[in-house]
Amino acid sequence: MPDHENPTNSPADDLAPAPRTPGVAIRSGLGSALAWIRDLGFSVLIAVVVIVFIYQPVKVEGTSMMPAFKNQERIFINKFTYRFGLGSIRRGDAVVFWYPMDPTKSYIKRVIGIPGDRIRIDSGQVYVNGRPLVEDYVTDRDNGSWPPTAHDEAVPAGRYFVLGDNRGSSSDSRAWGFVPRENIYGKAVFAYWPLEEMGRVR
Fold first, then answer.
1. Which residue has the higher pLDDT, 122 or 35?
2. How far apart are CA 105 and CA 132, in angstroms?
3. How far is residue 161's CA from residue 184's CA, in Å, rounded to a whole number?
4. CA-CA distances (angstroms) from residue 115 to 47, 124, 157, 161, 178?
5. Nearest Cα to 161, choosing from 124, 109, 125?
6. Largest interatomic CA distance in the chain
7. So which residues are the catalytic ones?
């Protein structure tokens, strides 16, 4: 006859939890901490790579690019496209560059003329290769003319003609000439602060 009182066959014993081992709990907590540190380090590394090689936050200072960019506005610039030659600099791009007269300063302006273009400004109207340039980003157009000779000026190879959108309050290629290609290091792509200005740069 089977012995139903045998404690080794008791169903209660089958469900009893195994005794805890303190060492296991410690190792589990340490593993979680190490995994968290690893993930944090990986996230920081990705952020550094993105900021150094792809996107960089910058602050706009001044009003020369209004209304597109306001004073103290924060934007992201794309450094990857121009640095590695994956995209060309085109008319209408809002670019960030080292100021030719003082390489310690950065400016942001809009590209108006690319190498080979012929530029003329007549009473505020910009002409590129003999045709009036449509500039819907300009709301404050001055009545100035450029160049002083009243003839079209050719943009040299490896140089760019840039203007501020706020023409009456901008120091740009009209005053200090063309920007060398090697000075241009970023393209404005996204505004993120203040929040009401958040969005893609046009």
1. 122
2. 32
3. 12
4. 35, 22, 5, 8, 10
5. 109
6. 121
7. 64, 109
pLDDT digits (tens, 9 = 90+) for 60-87: 999 999 999 999 999 999 988 887 666 7
Residue pLDDT, tens place only, 89-110: 999 999 999 999 998 999 999 9
Domain chopping of the chain, boundaries: 20-52, 60-200
pTM value? 0.74
Beta bridge partners of 107: 97
> Domain 60-200 maps to which CATH number in 3.60.110.10, 3.30.1330.60, 2.10.109.10, 3.90.1150.10?
2.10.109.10
Residue of 145, 120, 135, 143 lying closest to 67 (CA atoms): 135
- C-beta neighbour count of 108 within 10 angstroms: 24
Q: Using CB atoms within 10 Å of the CB of residue 24, give its burial: 0 to 12 exposed, 13 to 18 middle, 19+ buried.
A: exposed
